Amino acid sequence: MAALVALSPICHTPVSFGQTIDVQRGVSLFRRACIGCHDAGGNIIQPGATLFTKDLQRNGVDTEEEIYRVTYYGKGRMPGFGENCTPRGQCTFGARLQEEEIKLLAKFVKLQADQGWPNVETEED
């Protein structure tokens, strides 16, 4: 089965086959762990903490490294998802993510933020 990732017309960055696979995996991880609060890059819990570039910059989380750190350890009302996240009260009570998954999520979120959160759809042939 082949997977196809289609980005909206506002996506101007050419995407190679390797990047397509990473985007698809990023979409899957994002849907599994993040979409409940951050659908389409927004934030239903804290409106000023969206995943759009202006809010990421204002909150000091506008690099892949900072997005990784916040995703791993949490910040404010956002729980951490890292396997070794501490303290316990700051971390998700749900399934934890592996380090490589969080790295991929950080890369995906940064890419989406840079592109203004275009629509991302996955289809299986």
UniProtKB/TrEMBL annotation:
* Molecular function per GO: electron transfer activity; heme binding; iron ion binding
Which UniProt keywords are present, listed alphabetically? Electron transport, Heme, Iron, Metal-binding, Thylakoid, Transport
Instruction: Describe the location of the Cytochrome c domain by residue ranges.
Output: 21-113
Q: Which domain of life is it from?
A: Eukaryota
One matching Pfam family: Cytochrome_CBB3
Read off the InterPro entries from this record.
Cyt_c-like_dom, Cyt_c-like_dom_sf, Cyt_C6
Give the matching Gene3D superfamilies.
Cytochrome c-like domain
Function field: Functions as an electron carrier between membrane-bound cytochrome b6-f and photosystem I in oxygenic photosynthesis.
Give the family from UniProt: Belongs to the cytochrome c family. PetJ subfamily.
Its protein name is Cytochrome c-553
Which species expresses this protein natively?
Answer: Lithocarpus litseifolius
